[in-house]
Structure formats: C-alpha cells, structure tokens
Write a structure and sequence with these properties.
The complex is a heterodimer. Chain A is mainly α. In chain A, about 75% of the residues lie in helices and about 0% in strands. In chain B, about 75% of the residues lie in helices and about 0% in strands. Chain B starts with a helix and ends with a helix. Classes of the chains: A mainly alpha, B mainly alpha.
C-alpha cells in the first residue's frame, strides 16, 4: 500500500514538473505570437504586457506583411531552394549510402571515414573559401547558387543516416535479386530505395529545416531584395530602420514558422525515429 | 557478381555525391589552409604572396582573438552540459509517464525547429532594456532597482545567447536520450532492485552506463554546435560592445567581410577546426577509456 502511494506521488511530481517546464518553455513563443497580434504603434509598449488587451487585438501586422508582394517572393524563394535541395540531397545521398553500405571494401570505408571527419568542421568555418568558390563559379547573388552549397552541407549527415538503414536490409533480399541477374542500378532503384524510404524521409525533413532556416550563407551571397530567402528578409526587417517594427518582424516570423510546424506535427514520427536512429547508433 | 557493367554503375552512383563533396567541401578545406598561409585581403585579390605563418602569428598576438576564443569556450562549456542535463532530465521524466508523452515531446521540440533568426529576435525583444524581463524584475518582483542593460555588457550579453542556446537545444537532447533510455535492458533495473539500489543508484549505475554511446554522440555534436554559434550572437548583441561578445565565427566573419583580411580569417578558421578536432578525439578517448 505504501509503495503504491509512493509511485502515485512520484507520478504526480513527474507530471507537475513536465507541465511547469513546458509552460516556461513555450513562453517565448507565446510572447512572439502575442506581440504579432497587437498594434505596431509604439516602439516599446510601456508597461509591457505579456498578453495583449483583448480589445486591442489586431491583425494589422499580418495585413501589412501579406499586402506586400515581397513577402510572397521571399516565401517562394525559400520554398524553391529548400525543395530542390532536399530532392537532390535525397537522390545523391541515398546513392552514396547504397554503395558505401552494401559494397564494403577498404576504399569505401576510407571514403566514408573521410566524409564523417568533415562533419567535425562547423559549416560557417568554411565561409571564406566557399565565398571565393562561389565568386569563381559565378554563383554569387543567384538564388539557385545557394543550392549546391546547401546540398554539400547536408550530404555527409544524409549519407551517414541512410547508410545505416541500407546496411540493415537483410542479405537474403539482396542475394535473391543478384541470383535473378539484376544489375546494381536495378537493385538500388527497385529494392534498396523503397526499403530505405523511411530513412530518406526523415533525413529530408531535417534537410528541409536546414535549408529553410539557413541564414549566414544566404546573407553573405544574396544582395538583391527579390532573391532573398525568408530568414534574410526577417533579419533585414529588424535592421532596416532605427526603430525596429517588432509587430511586423514577429508577424512575418509566425508566417515563416507555420509551414515548419505543420510539417513537424504531421511528420513527427519520422523526425523522432530519424533522430533516435542517429543518437542510439552513433 | 561485379562485372564491368556493375562496376561502372557503382561508380555512376558514387559520382554525383563524390563530385559535390570534393568540389564544395574538400576543395574549400584545402583552399582554407592555403589561404591561411598567404597574405590575402580585398586589396590583394589578384596577387596572393605566400606569407608562411604570418597570419597565425597575427591571430595569436591579437587580444581580440583571445577574448572571442574565451567567449566561444565559455559558451560551449555552459550550453553543452546545460542542454544535456536538462534534456536528459526531461527524457527521464517522459520515460516514466504513460499519458500525454507525445504532447509534451512535441511542445518541447518546438524551439528546435524554430529558426535561429526568429528565436534570436524573440530573445532580444524579451531581454531588451525596455523589455518584458526588466519590467517583470523591477516593477512586478521588485528584485532589481531599475532596468538592466542585459545586451550591453560582455557576460550578460553572452548569457542571453547562452540561455537561448540551451532553450533551443533541450528538445533535441530530450528526443535522443528518450530513445536511448528505451534501449536500456529492463532486467538490469530488476537486478539493481534485488541488490537494493535506490532510484538514484539505479540512474547512476544502470541508466548512465547504458546510454554512454548516446552521451558521447551528443557531446561531440553539441561541442561542434557550440563552436558554430553565429546567428544568435549576430542578432542579439552584434558583438557589441567593441567585439566583447563576439565568438570565434562572428569575429572571423567580421575580419573577412568587414575588413577584408581573408588570410587572417582563414588562419582563425583553421585554428578553430584544429581545436575542435582535438576536442572530438579527446572526448572519444575519454569515453573509450571509461569503457575498459
């Protein structure tokens, strides 16, 4: 009896801690949304309020952002770059992962080790030589010039994740097709790709996030307003005037976050499985 | 099995990835090393005389370098354990409950998917001198006697970036530690029960050794992430005052793109990559040693 009471108390404490933590955790997001819903007049509302007054609630910030054609352009730019990046990364990464995971040799493990080692270097470290390379290849200030760099950044992680999955495909399945006389391409396209699709899906979600939110590189190479992606546009809003119009900044931020949150909520399973596979195996 | 056609096809599958990897990752790394040995700047784009270790000497003699180096180290030393401990704590709580587990997990993961630009602006807004936090501390709780200029001094500015880093990273740690916790064999806990271990003892002697691999993985990934901090510093303090809150990358970026000292920036990047390499090897060794 005592034990049961103890575990009930423990459970209660667990829920209380989680609920408290979750509330504290979400405060910044709630504050962002609430700021986006109040009039944009004052630089800083004083006294600041966490929740806007009900009678003062307004969508004027959203009206303003959505009335500007710039916003749609930035949105489309981000969407195009992100989608092309994840498609290319999925194709290139899964092909590499298939070869490295299924045809083991000294050379292939050496190559894989080499790819993994480059993951130690944070992306932004290489911004100077990459900027020089982009200049040489005439990719500066071009929207689609972002793509090869984004693809190259996500390839090591993608290959690493998909390779683990490729290795776990049972040998019997592969061998049966070899005996049937299938060639490498057929086995890759007909057997390996479909079986690894959960891994490819989860990697693609992460790659989408990377491309969708990327800031330092795009901010460095893109100058034209019409070629800006969303993060650059938001950051630009913030620095544009001496007085930042926080209502606009946060309305645009909320609009930028909506697709990401939708993808996350609907693909939650892939997200969690992908992360778990990387963390537990690694 | 591997006839000519198949060999060619294997090569064909490797080719696109290999090309992208060699061209956009390996070449820049090699080039970075070469640039670090040359006297390279905006004004000398065309002639890049070899300068030996000049850039490295300049980096190490630079007082600002040591400031930003310390900043990066402190940022990493605070945010990495901070995220891991809190993430593991949430994971342990989640592992023990039956209801609402998915709800808690989804909500706690939201900061991870919020972009750095947006999250940084939200934190800047909250910590602004006329912002919500100061009002709350001064006028509601009466613990401060006035508005504190959080963003204008070295350690408080960095602290805001560190709080953001921890806030944004807990969800990631929560998910990978939760997955690891579920892999710890249940019979080990039962054996510990029989030995009379309390819950804390079980955590220390069963859970922690059981998730060691994941701890190492998180440690290495997060250390890299800690050194990669860039956007939040740029958005929250912009390095102010006078580069006191800059980190290695924001300082490198400033040197490269605002002063045009590419050689200096390259040497700095290389020092940083080497530091990280040594740290990763060290962390790996440490965990391996404990294994045996």
């Amino acid at each position: 009896m005592k034990n049961r009471n103890m575990s009930a108390v423990r459970n209660f404490i667990r829920y209380m801690l989680l609920a408290f933590g979750t509330i504290v955790f979400t405060l910044p997001m709630i504050y962002m949304i609430s700021t986006s819903l109040r009039p944009n007049g004052a630089l800083y509302e004083y006294p600041p309020r966490f929740f806007p007054r009900i009678e003062a609630l307004t969508l004027e910030n959203y009206d303003y952002i959505l009335s500007q054609s710039k916003f749609y352009l930035n949105f489309l730019n981000s969407a195009a770059v992100s989608v092309i990046t994840i498609v290319l990364a999925a194709a290139i990464g899964s092909a590499m992962a298939f070869v490295l995971g299924r045809f083991k040799s000294g050379a292939s493990s050496l190559l894989f080790g080499f790819i993994i080692i480059t993951m130690i270097i944070p992306g932004t470290t290489m911004i100077v030589p990459q900027f020089e390379l982009a200049t040489k290849l005439n990719l500066v200030n071009k929207l689609f010039g972002l793509i090869p760099f984004y693809v190259s950044w996500v390839i090591p992680f993608s290959t690493f994740m998909i390779k683990g999955f490729m290795e776990n495909i049972p040998n019997e399945i592969m061998e049966a097709s070899w005996i049937d006389g299938a060639d490498v391409l057929t086995v890759y396209a007909r057997i390996a790709l479909p079986l690894a699709s959960p891994a490819i899906a989860s990697v693609s979600i992460f790659n989408f996030l990377t491309a969708w939110e990327e800031y330092p590189w795009a901010n460095t190479v893109i100058n034209d307003n019409s070629r800006r992606t969303l993060p650059i546009a938001i950051a630009g809003f913030f620095g544009q005037h001496q007085f930042t119009q926080w209502g606009y900044v946060f309305a645009m931020s909320v609009l930028t976050l909506i697709p990401v949150v939708l993808i996350f909520v609907f693909c939650q399973k892939f997200f969690v499985e992908g992360l778990a596979a990387g963390g537990v195996k690694g | 099995m591997l006839n000519r056609t198949n060999r060619l096809q294997i090569l064909g599958l490797l080719m696109p990835g290999l090309t992208v990897f060699l061209m956009f990752t390996v070449y820049p790394i090699v080039r970075l090393f070469w640039m670090s040995l040359c006297d390279m700047s905006f004004s000398s784009m065309l002639s890049q005389p070899f300068a030996g270790l000049m850039n490295y000497r300049e980096v190490f003699a630079d007082r600002t370098f040591w400031t930003v180096f310390v900043n990066s180290i402190v940022y990493t030393l605070v945010t990495v354990p901070g995220q891991m401990v809190l993430g593991l704590f949430v994971a342990v709580l989640l592992n023990g409950i039956r209801h609402f587990s998915v709800t808690f997990r989804v909500i706690n993961y939201l900061p991870v998917i919020t972009s750095w630009v947006i999250a940084s602006l939200v934190f800047r807004y909250i910590f602004n001198t006329e912002g919500l936090l100061n009002y709350f501390l001064w006028k509601v709780l009466h613990v401060t006697g006035g508005n504190i200029r959080w963003l204008d001094t070295r350690w408080s500015g960095l602290a805001v970036a560190m709080i953001l880093g921890i806030w944004k990273g807990i969800g990631w740690n929560m998910v990978i530690f939760l997955a690891a916790l579920q892999q710890v064999p249940q019979d080990l806990y039962e054996a510990a029960d029989i030995d009379g271990c309390g819950s804390f003892g079980k955590f220390l002697h069963v859970t922690l050794p059981g998730i060691r691999g994941t701890i190492l993985f998180a440690l290495i990934e997060l250390t890299i992430g800690g050194f990669n901090v860039f956007t939040s510093i740029k958005m929250i303090t912009g390095g102010k005052p006078a580069h006191h809150t800059d980190t290695l990358l924001t300082w490198m970026y400033y040197k490269a793109f605002s002063t045009g000292r590419f050689g200096y920036a390259a040497a700095l990047s290389f020092v940083m990559a080497l530091t990280l390499g040594f740290m990763a090897v060290g962390q790996f060794r440490m965990m391996r040693l404990r294994d045996s």
